[in-house]
Amino acid sequence: MSEHDADVIDLLVSQHGEIKSLLHQVQMAVGDTREQKFQELVRLLAVHEAAEQEVVHPTARHHSVGDEIVDSRLREEQEAVRVLAELYDLGPAHPEFDSKFTAFADRVIEHAELEEKEEFSRLQQEASHDERVGLAGAVRFAESLAPTRPHPGVGASPVAHLLIGPPLAVFDRIRDGIRDWRRQGGDA
To answer: d(Cα 173, Cα 137) in Å, to the nearest integer?
Structure first.
């Protein structure tokens, strides 16, 4: 199966695995490596959550997965984005980062497991294979919008190099890009 035949659920579950791995790597790393792993995590979470919020959750709602399930996942994601922004502002070298990050990691893992069990399994049953492949295209498009390295003018501090702008701005940029892509028929 080629990348363009990939099912959105398989793609998102794979991203969940990458997210879990990066959460662990951030917890175990120190110094510049920790900063780099945190940068990778922020980027992947921005792509993942923006794609889910703009594409997957509305599709789940359309297929009657359940408003309560979708609303719960959205609330968890909004809280995760808020906490991620706080962690970004603290920076990995801050003394409070470890305890806040550990609690954050636990909630992210619980969220991913609930999503797979409650939402993805129902979407797998309700949405056609072709629709799920089309949704995977939207997720890949979101990946193309996320910054992969800091802009040269961002500054010299490691925290400033995490992203071009704080996490909330990156989430917004990706969500806006997905909306434009869909309006132009990207998911047709």
So the answer is: 18
Structure tokens at 28: 């175990």
Residue 161 has pLDDT above 70, yes or no: no
DSSP code for 91: -
Share of the chain above pLDDT 90, in %: 49
Residues 6+ apart with CB under 8 A from 15: 44, 47, 48, 139
Residue type, 141: F
Please choose, from the candidates 36, 34, 41, the residue with its C-alpha nearest in 3D space to the C-alpha of residue 18.
Answer: 41
Give pTM, 2 decimals.
Answer: 0.80
Q: How far does Cα 148 stand from its chain's mean position?
A: 14
DSSP code of 167?
Answer: H
Question: How many residues make up the chain in this entry?
Answer: 188
Q: Look up residue 62 and give its two tokens.
A: 């359309």
**Can you read off the two tokens belonging to residue 112?**
């991913």
How far apart (Å, rounded) are the C-alpha atoms in residues 73 and 29? 29
Question: What are the tens digits of pLDDT across the range 40-70?
Answer: 998 888 888 888 888 889 999 999 888 999 9
- Report d(CA 161, CA 9) in Å as an integer: 31
Q: Output the DSSP codes for 44-58.
A: HHHHHHHHIIIIIHH
Burial-class residue 130 by CB neighbours within 10 Å (0-12, 13-18, 19+). Answer: exposed
